[in-house]
Amino acid sequence: MRNTSDESNVFFDEELDLFSGIDDVSISSISNNQINLFTNINDTNYVVSENEINESRMLYLKENVTPLFISLLKYEDFEFGHKSESIKLIQNELRINRIVTINWLNDIFLKAFTDDDKVLIGLLRVLEYFDEDTFYPTSQVIALAALSHQNDEVKELAVRAFENWGSIKSYEILKKVHSDTSWLKAYINEVLKDIELELCLS
User: Fewest Cβ atoms nearer than 10 Å: which of 42, 85, 111, 192?
Assistant: First the structure.
């Protein structure tokens, strides 16, 4: 069982190779929106709400970051032990606004679920890299939903995400999953046994 929690808990430490400009542009974009909101209203007591800040951030992600991220998910090679550019991108976005980034990823997942298996597979590979608590509980919901997908690779990656997290929470969730597919049922049982041994549950 691969444990990435030590590295993935610290997701602010490295500069992005291809995306060093995203941080400055996005912060500037939000700041400009805030300034506009302040200057367009004469009331000096007016305060920009968190909702407005988050909406501005989400709009920025959808319009400016999504195309690049989708392209990476489709065409980037994911190698064991190697931090991909898509993972670095997500680390950067988490540092800027964690809540909006999680909601944005969930939105991408929902769209990819019906339209694009390649994006779905790439997204699951990204999520499995991170510690379970980074996206909790959205990560568990995404993995559970992926288990019902018709694509076998998507199902396998969903189980592998629970395997990599390897926590009591993941164990309890995965234990409640029922599958009539023989290979998937066998894989789930194998993962459950591994987690039981690692956490001394048996």
Answer: 42
